[in-house]
Structure to design on (221 residues):
């Protein structure tokens, strides 16, 4: 068995075959489809079938304000298991988020520390202020989420990035963040902003989209 970083658990007893399986597994995870190959070993040919397994898609929403409600609905509809975190119990409630798999009323940092984050996890920071955004970034920096996005104006995001770097958060972790968040589709309402965020998450995970109108692509523009 191997993970997305190519680390192999166990051995076939053939170092070359172990390496071939590891490489094939990484490629299968990248392509998200099974692979089959034949390895010429010392005792003859060995046929190997590799099938990728990914953790279920999850979205962690930090902040349970007005955008979080349609974002939870849109992400759930897109197939994500949604976890909502807020330090205000009257906001982080099942009544406000009936579609969420989990609703956690706790301070952001300890809640994030005990929440599983995998390469199938997206994290959206839409808290009510700089201080809480910074707490969340510190808590998720270096964890394997495929997407971390933070809402805010360009000025707010720039100030946050500078402050976090001064506090010791690595530049690499900050450069991996998507901020300001979402695709530029002219979104205005909380519902439209939620769709723009989910669209960006889908784009990042697929790794193959253009975010352009398909009609323009078909016309060769």
């Amino acid at each position: 068995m191997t993970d997305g970083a190519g680390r192999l658990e166990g051995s076939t007893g053939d170092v070359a075959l172990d390496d071939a399986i590891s490489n094939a597994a990484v490629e299968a995870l990248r392509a998200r489809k099974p692979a089959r190959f034949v390895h010429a070993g010392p005792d003859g040919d060995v046929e190997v079938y590799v099938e990728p397994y990914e953790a279920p898609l999850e979205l962690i929403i930090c902040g349970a304000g007005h955008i979080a409600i349609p974002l939870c609905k849109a992400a759930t509809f897109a197939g994500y298991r949604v976890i909502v975190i807020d330090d205000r119990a009257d906001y982080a409630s099942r009544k406000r988020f009936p579609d969420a798999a989990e609703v956690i009323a706790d301070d952001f940092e300890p809640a994030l520390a005990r929440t599983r984050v995998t390469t199938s996890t997206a994290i959206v920071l839409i808290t009510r202020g700089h201080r809480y955004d910074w707490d969340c970034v510190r808590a998720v920096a270096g964890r394997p989420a495929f997407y971390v996005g933070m809402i805010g104006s360009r000025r707010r995001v720039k100030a946050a990035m500078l402050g976090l770097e001064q506090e010791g958060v690595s530049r690499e972790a900050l450069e991996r963040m998507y901020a300001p968040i979402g695709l530029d589709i002219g979104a205005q309402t909380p519902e439209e902003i939620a769709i723009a965020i989910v669209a960006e998450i889908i784009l990042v995970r697929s790794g193959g989209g253009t975010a352009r109108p398909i009609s323009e692509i078909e016309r060769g523009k």
About this structure: The radius of gyration is 20 Å. Residues 60 and 115 are 9 Å apart (CA to CA). The longest helix spans residues 15-31. The first strand starts at residue 35 and ends at 41.
